Amino acid sequence: MFKRILIANRGEIAIRVIRTCQEMGIETIAVYSTADEDSLHRKLATHAVCIGGPGPEESYLNMTALVSAGLAYRCDAVHPGYGFLSENPDFARMCEENGMIFIGPDSGTIRTFGDKSSARKIMTAAGIPVTPGSDGIVASVEEGMRIAREIGYPVLIKASAGGGGRGMRRVNQADDFVKKYEEARAEANACFGSTDLYIEKLIEHPKHIEFQILADQFGHVVHLGDRDCSIQRKNQKMIEETPSRFLSDTVRGKMGEMAVACARAAHYTNAGTVEFLYTEEGNFYFMEMNTRIQVEHAITEMVTGVDLVREQIRIASGLPLDITQKDIQFSGHAIECRINAENPDEGFIPCPGKVEFLHLPGGKGVRVDTALYSGCTVSPYYDSMIAKVVAYGKTRLEALRIMRRALEEMIIDGIRTNTIFMCLILYDTDFTRGRYDTSFLEEKLSRFVNWDKIFDEIG
Predict the structure, then answer these.
(1) Which domains does the chain have, with CATH numbers?
(2) What is the pTM of this model?
(3) For residues 111 and 98, what is the distance between their CA atoms, to the nearest angstrom?
């Protein structure tokens, strides 16, 4: 087992990893930027080292600084968390070349799945359904138009190296194709340094269903159930729950088997997430595989009792999985809300600043993962997510009621957040009944913003 792990991240995910390491008797080395000098993850780690200025490229994206810190403290391994360099194959390879184990799949696997068109080819060869589209990278706008015409509009133009909705454009008709193609190409180049694009048929009103998998170095693969991530804004997840209210046990079983087959086809190791689109007609298609721990991993932990970070560390250290598929038991229902420092009434503009007072919800069935504390400052340099509130109940209705209570109990003074926006979603009739898909927020957004005006009208 590892003696010392470098945590190449910040905020709540760094704290999440630190907690499991402490329970396993493993020392932790935290890294921080000059903007994070008073950060909680720095205070909780065994040791901490400043690696650069406030900008991500100066610190949390600085591969040389991160590896140097790991070597200086004689770390056995590096945990990348999520975001930043967690899915960067060059960083994984640099860790490997410097004698530190990257806690995740190897650099080659990360590179393969980072290229979405390559991932589609692997899945197709393994007999796993993928959405209709191009066989690989589209060579020109003319080829793209031909493929779009063959599979039928609407289509999605997607960056092969993309993620988080960047480098992606919806095209409803042929007249718009050239403009959208150039927009996607420019954004892909700006965000990922690659202009490679591919084409997919746009699935209308799908559910976004993902399966958590674990795979060790000895060929053992298990899945830990599904997560419904369909509540999204601009392809960014906002609320996740498990299990999906929409899936039957039969379909859930088939999708779980397919997720395991995806991992086997790729000779995958460590934790990963296989993402599917599920259609109104009952079909499902492979979308992508995320080669890291997910933001929403906590809800899977709540219904299975499995510490996913612990399993990541054990697998990376060379140990076999100590659980089989039959050992994994699913109990109850869990929901997660992502709390962001942003103003929904002003186009979700980020709202950094000082937290003057903080009260976090608690009680039966509530878990809060955060790096906030009273008096801390939310930096403008990083992602606006500041907390994850998780509610667990024996049933979905119980979990939903607990989540409503938890959000109403949360107090974050000094900055604007999306907490009330989340509450309004949770009270929506369609959400309560589980009648939602990825278009839910797009169609209902006006109901959940400018809430103070709505209250004035009804008050």
Answers:
(1) 4-103 (3.40.50.20), 132-201 (3.30.1490.20), 207-458 (3.30.470.20)
(2) 0.92
(3) 19
